[in-house]
Amino acid sequence: MAGAAVMDSLGADLGRALTGGAVVYLQGELGAGKTTLVRGVLHGLGFAGHVRSPTYTLVEGYEFGARRLYHLDLYRIRGAEEMEYLGARDLDDSKLWVFAEWPERGAGRLPAPDLLLNFELREPSRRIRAEAHTARGRELLQAWLTGEGRGKGSRQAKKAKS
User: Fold this and answer.
1) Are 6 and 159 in contact (CB under 8 A)?
2) CA distances from residue 89 to 67, 130, 149 in whole angstroms, order as listed
């Protein structure tokens, strides 16, 4: 897949597939599209506001009625104490949507992933490899790939995933 628009579209499809809480780990080098995908997820959930990158704030939170999504960028985390300061133990809630970039830096403090997305940057395109780690992750991956959930995904995004 190439370009931010396609990554945003894939994220929107994933957002529409979210029906229950989930923990999604985002792995990949800088500039691979992790934050762009989360922006798309938020748009797919119906968020119309400005999506901020958590690069410097480390955590950005968004509310959707009774549901919440947390986007973490742990690139700058140096140890377990910093994870505790961020409130990592509060993220282990089955009702939350948690998207964590650089999850290996929060190892042992983050909830286990339902879904792992590994981003590969191969100019001029990108590739995402998805691995389900739980039954919830398998359900989410299936809904994302088939366009099930709260709405149907775009044909272009489905084609880009194949």
Assistant:
1) no
2) 18, 25, 28
Close Cβ partners of 119 (under 8 Å, ≥ 6 residues apart): 26, 27, 28, 29, 32, 33, 34, 37, 126, 127, 128
Cβ atoms of 45 and 13 within 8 Å: the answer is no
Cis ω for the linkage preceding 54 (within 30 of 0): no
- CA 27 to CA 50: how far, in whole Å? 23
Structure-token match 């104490």, residue found: 81
Tell the residue number behind the tokens 């922006």, with chain if given.
Answer: 39
Which spans in the chain are helix H? 4-17, 34-44, 80-85, 135-146, 155-161
The pLDDT tens digits for 35-65 are: 899 999 999 998 888 788 777 678 888 887 7
Architecture of domain 4-150: 3-Layer(aba) Sandwich (3.40)
Residue with tokens 């830096």: 105
Whole-Å CA distances, 118 to 12, 57, 101, 110, 128: 17, 23, 10, 17, 5
- Enter the pTM of the model: 0.83
